Amino acid sequence: xxxxxxxxxxSLLDNRLSLPQNIDNLFFRQGALLQNEFEDLYNALFSxxxxxxxxxxxxxxxxxxxTRDEIIAATNYQGGSLTTVLxxxxxxxFIETYNQYGNEKKNTIYKLVDFYTxxxxxxxxxxxxxxxxxxxxxxxxxxxxxxxxxSFELLCRCHLRQIKHALGISGIATKTSSWKYIxxxxxxxxxxQIDMVIERVDKMIHLCEMKFRDRRFSIDKAYADTLDNxxxxxxxxxxxxxxxxNTIVTPIGLTVSRYNYLVHSVVMAEDLFLM
Length: 275
What we know:
The longest helix has 18 residues, at 221-238. Helices cover 41% and strands 16% of the residues. The chain has a five-stranded mixed beta sheet with strand order 4-5-6-7-8, with helices on both faces. By secondary structure, the chain is of the alpha/beta class. It has two domains: 7-157, Orthogonal Bundle (Arc Repressor Mutant, subunit A); 160-273, 3-Layer(aba) Sandwich (Trna Endonuclease, Chain: A, domain 1), CATH 3.40.1350.10. It contains eleven helices and eight strands. Helix 3 crosses helix 4 (49-60).
């Protein structure tokens, strides 16, 4: 979730140290090996690297991604040159494209999916603290908890094949997307946003929710209401006649709860690395 499993970066880890100590050594200490890696990386891969950096920086600020029109508005890049940059970034696995559920033909979303680039813009770019133990000192902060949640969601997206295997649907044709509903202004309706929608050819739909926790995830009354509401809203607004079920992806699984019946299936972190 920090360096994206890149073999060279992994080779720099010292197994005598904790993970926070390693991150400080690689990124935050004076003369750290990866302190200047970002610009070296982009300049080595792309000519006119500034244009690529500007686009990934804009994308790093929007967790759910941007449409092409939104990228144009934010960067003033457009036309064939923008197409070339976006295609190159996608071919190099820095970004991915996807569509909203039920809207496969237009409004493609561009999402930054390179773990290291996301980490760089979140914690290294513009970091003026000069704290050589920044990660150790902030490891339990809300900021890092939020980043962990975002990065875990991306980790799950990168392991869709393994999630399908854990769900027992490897041999079933599927389409994967995201979905959200924003109620009209002044409406009393509840909106909802779904991280991953897996639509199966056998007329079932998994509404997948990614929850990063360092302990078992507990479904309380408030979250149970959220689960119930999102199925109802999804069914009503999409008009689907498929069976719609809740799936939760969380590192260690669920605690015992009276509300667990609302969850059809659970995928754990160990499932993501079995294949």
